[in-house]
Amino acid sequence: MNFSKRIIAMDQSPIRKLTPYAERAKEHGKKIYHLNIGQPDILTPKSFMNAIKNTNAEILKYTSSQGIPELIDAFINFYKEYNFNFERDEILVTNGASEGLFFSAIAIADDGDEILVPEPFYTNYQGFLSATGIKTVPVPTSASTGFRLPNKETFSSYITSKTKAILLSNPSNPTGIVYTLEEMQLIADIAKENDLFILADEVYRDFVYDNIEFHSFMNMKEIEDKVILIDSLSKRFSACGCRIGAIITKNKELIAHILKLCQLRLCCPMLEQIGAVELLKTPKSYFKEVLCEYEQRRNVLYNELQKIPNIVFHKPEGAFYVIVKLPIENAEDFAIWLLNDFDINSETVMLAPAKGFYSTENSGMDEVRIAYILNEDDLKKSMYILKEGLTKYLSIKNR
Amino acid sequence: MNFSKRIIAMDQSPIRKLTPYAERAKEHGKKIYHLNIGQPDILTPKSFMNAIKNTNAEILKYTSSQGIPELIDAFINFYKEYNFNFERDEILVTNGASEGLFFSAIAIADDGDEILVPEPFYTNYQGFLSATGIKTVPVPTSASTGFRLPNKETFSSYITSKTKAILLSNPSNPTGIVYTLEEMQLIADIAKENDLFILADEVYRDFVYDNIEFHSFMNMKEIEDKVILIDSLSKRFSACGCRIGAIITKNKELIAHILKLCQLRLCCPMLEQIGAVELLKTPKSYFKEVLCEYEQRRNVLYNELQKIPNIVFHKPEGAFYVIVKLPIENAEDFAIWLLNDFDINSETVMLAPAKGFYSTENSGMDEVRIAYILNEDDLKKSMYILKEGLTKYLSIKNR
After folding, report:
1. How far is A386 from A158, CA to CA, in rounded Å?
2. How high is the pLDDT of residue A13?
3. Share of chain B above pLDDT 90, in %
């Protein structure tokens, strides 16, 4: 049987690709510290389950394709605290940020069109774009310059007549950087001059450390009709398995178009939406504690990484990831070796090889992404295992 | 701003398009009998909510992209009762049949490729296909011949070098027909001779009346590697709002490809999957009652429709829809008129104009789809309203 060219061209998720090795390691009795996936260990606010347990719906019905009105209103109220004022026809509830991104891309670009993405980028971006025939055009940044954006001339050089949008996550997964106001202005200027949409993935908006002020593209009035905010409750409320996200834009015409895609898939699950309403009402104090915890983890990670010789990394400012350049040739080989052939007291770590976050060929081969979603003790142990593992791996390779 | 050509070309859901008229009618105090949408009024088995209420997960985590193992196993056991034997790597859990169809189409056809669909068809088929650049090629059938398939020569004449699959629902939404073994053999032969996939949407599999024996394409060993079963719990368990479906195929290579798309959207909601496990364990007796109820409704509908002069329809054999050809020119105009300008004791009906179920231009203009998802009394009242409405509408139009 013949499969489509687009599905054949698509890679397996680089984050999940090593899972079989991890499973085998577990079967052999190894404990694995998962640094490879952004699954927080923070408890989900109880309000979510409580709301669901209190529903007495006897029939699980289709809801509005846009999202239940209570959830749309909860999003509106939630954003008011960020000084955003949205109207009901500026928000669509989606099955996670994933669907929000997928639908937005379909609505703004055709087969053969291009979307610029600062590289390294969240690996699934490329998957979604290529599944619908859109070309991911990477705008390279590098570990050595802390992944900051290139200047306007360089950035603009990637634009062609087929470019439709700039897609980026801020704070960034996988680099952990938070874009400065200058960088954002650069992107806004480019978008304005070239009539491009800005697909702003802000699912880590609340994870910003060192009292850095976070700026949203949504605050830039001059490009209001060009900004598509992609949001999700997954990370903010440690509710990855609830799969509720949203598309938010002041461009009402775009909302009307994307709503047609929402209607195709009928609706998001009823119960998850009911729970999400309560999540969005979570008092700010919850998040203050969470932020404190993550900043502490970031600090621990940073301190521990500094003990490992010959690696390159920067102090992450946001989200809960960092890209680390290792003094080796093939980070995937190293990651597999850690699972297959290494342990300290039957414990090892699982890393995400960073090449999956690059589309430029041969980029990121010597880098890994580390998610610091473990508690302090586990994080310290993991970094020790990484350090010792690296030393041993190097001694074997250099033998 | 420029939107994509594909999103501009896409129509609003014809099933949901008249919603604003319905809302206005409700604001004016009218009660509306919804014959336009397939939202059953049967109670969802309590096991679903009970399972969710009994979970004590403190963190809503990502699940496996394929679906939680318990749900995969529950599907396997469920299908055993239909004499299907599936292995774990032959099933993917999806966000409703919608996602299953969307992902399957992406995996088997590229931009510009074609998929054959007996027409009239479930309107969202065309939406999903065109969103990813696939051309819907209708194979016309008509009300006058009870929507039976054309012969092999005629059917085959729609095949080109770009044809990748045949997509159809069985029992059929919107026509209510159940394909005969001869019709299925015809499709199987065509698929075999032309190396096409068969996308078999069997979400109404259990809704078959008059003791007609239902045949699944999955039973046809000779085309085993070509059949992609699209399933959903929505209709079977009156759980439309739970959004759990599945892709099932013996083609393991295809499963591996589609899994890449599943990984992009990370996973289906955790709680819905936990509830779905229990739904699949629902005793057969539940469904016997449901079937009895729907067959009775079908009979009521059929009897009442016979009282309306000059309409064309056939007795539906499955699902819970019927297409009715009306003695008017524009069924959409009539449907809007029923909402805007007609009522009997402040009650009216909402119909789905059938033209949205056709892609051949000017087809189905005088037809409506009726979903018989109301209880007997409401169904009788609705049919009376339809009959009187039609008489009045005709008298106005012929004035």
Report:
1. 37
2. 74
3. 92
- Please tell me if residue B263 touches chain A, with a CB cutoff of 8 Å: yes
Distance, CA of B48 to CA of B279 (rounded, Å): 6
At A188-227, the pLDDT tens digits run 999 999 999 999 999 999 999 999 999 999 999 999 999 9
Instruction: List the domain boundaries for chain B.
Output: 5-43+285-393, 46-282
The answer to whether the beta carbons of residues A243 and A114 sit under 8 Å apart is no
What sign does the dihedral B33-B39-B43-B46 (CA atoms) show? negative
Chain A residues whose CB is inside 8 A of the B164 CB are 2, 4
Main-chain phi, psi angles of B274, to 5 degrees: -65, -45
> Which one-letter amino acid corresponds to residue A36?
N
Looking at chain B from residue 178 to 217, which residues have their Cβ under 8 Å from any Cβ of chain A? 195, 197
Contacts of B61 in chain A (CB under 8 A): 39, 240-241
- Average pLDDT of B156-168? 98
Residue B316's φ and ψ, nearest 5 degrees, are -65, 140
Nearest to A349 by CA among A14, A43, A18, A124: A18
pLDDT band at B154 (very low <50, low <70, confident <90, very high): very high
Does the pLDDT value for residue B13 go beyond 80?
A: no
- A126, closest residue in chain B (CA to CA): B264
Q: Which of residues 97-126 of A touch B (CB under 8 A)?
A: 98-99, 102, 106-111, 113, 124
Contacts of A226 in chain B (CB under 8 A): 1
Residue B208: HSE in the Cβ half-sphere, 13 Å Cα cutoff: 17
Q: Which residues of B touch A265 (CB under 8 A)?
A: 95-96, 98-99, 102
Helix (H) or strand (E) holding B324: strand B321-325
Does residue B14 carry a pLDDT above 80?
no
Q: What is the ipTM of this complex?
A: 0.94
Alpha carbon distances (Å) from B65 to A15, A125, B200: 12, 17, 23
Q: Find the CB nearest B127 among A195, A241, A264.
A: A264
Torsion of Cα atoms, A266 then A269 then A271 then A275, to 10°: -110
User: How many beta-carbon pairs below 8 A join chains A and B?
Assistant: 243
3 state DSSP class of A264: helix
Under CATH, which number does the domain A5-43+285-394 receive? 3.90.1150.10
For chain A, list residues with pLDDT below 50: none
- CB under 8 Å to A65, separation ≥6 — which residues? A259, A262, A263, A265, A266, A267, B13, B16
* Identity of the residue numbered B249: T
For A46-282, give the CATH class: alpha beta
What is the CATH code for B5-43+285-393?
3.90.1150.10
Query: Which residue in A234, A253, A266 has the most chain B C-beta atoms within 10 A of its own C-beta, making it the best mutation to test that interface?
Result: A266
Q: What is the pLDDT of residues A29-71, one digit of tens each?
A: 999 999 998 888 899 999 999 999 999 889 999 999 999 999 9
- Chain A contact for B394 (CB, 8 A cutoff): no
What is the distance between the alpha carbons of residues B347 and B381, in angstroms, rounded to a whole number?
9
Q: Do B59 and A131 touch (CB under 8 A)?
A: no
Residue B148 touches partner A, C-beta closer than 8 Å: no
CA A301 to chain CA centroid, Å, is 19
- My answer on whether omega of the bond before B120 falls inside 30° of 0, hence cis, is yes
Q: How confident is the model over B303-326, as a mean pLDDT?
A: 97
